[in-house]
Amino acid sequence: MKNIKIIIGALTFLMLSACEKNFLDRKPLELVLASDYFKTPKDLEAYVNQFYNSTSFPISSGYGLDYNSDNAVATNFDGRLAGTRTLDGAGGISFSRVRSANYFFDNYKRIEDYAAFDDYKQYVGEAFFFRALAYFDLLKGWGDIQWFTSVPGTESPELLQQRDPRNIVADNIIKDLDSAALYLQGAKTDGASRINKWIALLIQSRIALYEGTWEKYHAGDPFGVASPQPEKYFNKAVEAATKVMESGVYTLHSTGSPNTDYYELFSKQRTYASNTEVMFWKRFDNGLGKGEEAFRREVNYTQRNPYEHSQTKELADCYLCTDGKPISGNPLFKGYTNIGLEMQNRDPRYFQTFGMPGQPYKIELDGTVTNYEALYAILNQGVQNYSPSGYVLRKGYDARVQYQIPQYEETPGIIYRYGEVLLNFAEAKAELGTITQDDIDKSIKLLRDRVGMPNLTLSAIAADPAWDFPALTPIINEVRRERRVELASEGFRFDDIMRWAAADELIVGKRPHGFKAAQLSVNPYPVGADGFLDPYQQKLPSGYGFKIGRDYLNAIPKDQLLLNPSLVQNPGWE
């Protein structure tokens, strides 16, 4: 009777999954009994198709996804940064993605009598990959979490088990990705259909770097692990990234135009099938079935509208001058009088990330061009033009008006790109203390070459009095700067702050700022004593209230603690 309940439960999950909008536009798996299924490679393919959805693959570029960090400012601040979350509002811990992956592992070997392993190993690799992704989300949210490799029976649901230490979970995730890389195809493919081994290695480098820095910088605090081994994870991150770098499958996108290549990677594309940098991407097509339009409308409304997608002065100040040195005390820096001056002599990624005067803001169908100075002239006048900081996000935005009507929008979305591999490699080497000039030349130099910036020279790093982490080495500070600039608005910044245990330096007691308010003819936002926009001055007079001893992890909901007396609440939530 118990086995029947397990099958019914799993099939119910499949039926519910089939009702969801499918991310890669595949037909849902038909509801069938496990005993009649998993007999052909197509059966396995249909099953793992359910994982290709927006939960596994959130769009990662050009959509203002750094709003919950020090990179962006919205009209409403994030509750986690503000420290206003409560135990009563703690959301549930869902193992549904893990259960679904494990149901595959419990049943896929039925195919062994019907097909050779080489005919279906791709789908086995995908199941390992998606289980790793699901567990990584749980790890980031709650730290210690129960690890399962099969679907628990009804007599032992996940939430009745004790949590496994986070480093054990991280080790198991990395093992899953080793298996994924072993079984997944090595071909690049079109990058929009099925994942490959290089994507698994990219994610392995990401997760190993995350856990390594977490263990290093949270050592001794309530979120650390017993007997931390950060070097083990840094070495794994280097190993995984190196395999991708040495494969020759990917290179940075560059046409030799340093003032446009970075911007056009995120905006002027209609397909990434032949792009050398984009490893995985999401296609949008007006010919897709019903249900995609609503998603396109939601994504592109927020992307096209500067409202709630303005970037911070703190991010803008990170961009080096064209001599490769910081703005502090640099004669090349023209000051803050207006954004046109502020952009001069700066890393070209500056004006390819922010909307700048002289650049097209709208290009009409008849070719008429309206530049950004026209937008700045009416900025913060009417909801369509609100930008609390003044720094309008340009990255990911296409000025052509035919691509600003949501139901016609077909700009594809980047999910994974090769630039991250280079950054993961450089950071892991810097954390190990083994980084060499050769390591920099095959990672950071390539990113800077694309935009015509000088290389980072290990023996001659210019000191910056505004470094975020003055207690750390110059090379770690500069690698972190490069990561912030290159990956701006791609959704990495919050995770970086969490794993670096950097909320005390970057969040607590601070507020995001904007450019000089005197540039605006109308300004509905508060202004600081120094003349810069200070949007949260009244709402957060003491700055963000992120609680260092609590907010690095989520709370375990009360009902789950009552259900399972063996669970221990995360630090600070008692």
Overall description:
The protein is mainly α. It has a domain at 284-411. It is 38% helix and 4% strand. It is built from 21 helices and 7 strands. The chain has a 3-stranded antiparallel β-sheet. Helix 5 (121-142) runs antiparallel to helix 6 (166-183), helix 5 runs parallel beside helix 7 and helix 15 packs antiparallel against helix 18. The model is unreliable at 1-32 and 289-304 (pLDDT under 50).
- SSE pattern: HHEHHHHHHHEHEHHHEEHEEHHHHHHH
Q: How much is the average pLDDT?
A: 88
**Structural class of the secondary structure composition?**
mainly alpha
Poorly predicted regions: 1-32, 289-304
How big is the Rg? 24 Å
Termini separation comes to 40 Å
Q: Count the helices. How many? A: 21
The count of β-strands is: 7
The side-by-side strand order for the widest beta sheet comes to 1-3-6
| Percent strand | under 5%
Q: Main beta sheet: strand number and arrangement?
A: 3 strands, antiparallel
Task: Produce the secondary structure layout.
Layout: H1 2-19, H2 41-48, E1 72-73, H3 79-82, H4 96-107, H5 121-142, H6 166-183, H7 197-217, H8 230-247, H9 261-267, E2 278-282, H10 292-304, E3 310-311, H11 313-316, H12 339-342, H13 349-353, E4 360-363, E5 369-371, H14 372-377, E6 391-392, E7 413-417, H15 418-432, H16 437-441, H17 444-450, H18 474-486, H19 493-499, H20 503-506, H21 558-563
Antiparallel strand pairs: 1-3, 2-7, 3-6, 4-5
Helix pairs in contact: 2-5, 4-5, 5-6, 5-7, 6-7, 7-8, 7-15, 7-19, 8-15, 15-18
